[in-house]
Design brief:
- The chain folds into two domains: 71 residues, no CATH class; 43 residues, no CATH class.
- A two-stranded antiparallel ribbon has the order 1-2.
- It has 126 residues and is mainly alpha-helical.
- It is 29% helix and 5% strand.
- Belongs to the GMC oxidoreductase family.
- One of its GO terms (molecular function) is flavin adenine dinucleotide binding.
């Protein structure tokens, strides 16, 4: 799933020992919610086929119905991240307000600092 929702990481204060404030903003883009709703419907069909262990079947079939509203409520109550966040220090052109580093991985406005991990990827690699 190529999620479209955008979160943000901000500094709590100028004190470097304070943890940043991280707001992943999961499911804020309608495309993400629609794709997950479709995926849950397909999963429910699989569970209803009898090909899955009873304890898992009971968990997902706890939905009141397969309506968008009930599935969205299920998503809001049960969604947990199971992936590594990326794109928090996006590579991009210096005039891109969402980019923090250039293609040389140097952080804009900071001397002698580079970011060299998955956080520079603007999109999740497949």
């Amino acid at each position: 799933m190529n999620m479209q929702s955008k979160g943000e990481v901000t500094l709590k204060s100028a004190n470097a020992t304070n943890h940043p404030v991280i707001d992943p903003n999961y499911m804020s883009h309608p495309f993400d919610r629609k794709m997950l709703t479709l995926a849950i419907r397909e999963t429910m069909k699989f569970f209803e086929s009898g090909a899955i262990l009873q304890e898992f079947k009971a968990y997902v079939l706890a939905l009141r119905s397969q309506s968008d509203e009930d599935i969205h409520e299920f998503i809001d109550e049960n969604l947990l991240p199971v992936f590594h966040a990326n794109g928090t220090v996006k590579v991009g052109k210096s005039d891109d307000p969402t980019a923090c580093t250039g293609k040389d991985f140097r952080v804009y406005g900071v001397e002698k600092l580079r970011v060299v991990d998955l956080s520079v990827c603007p999109m999740t690699p497949k």
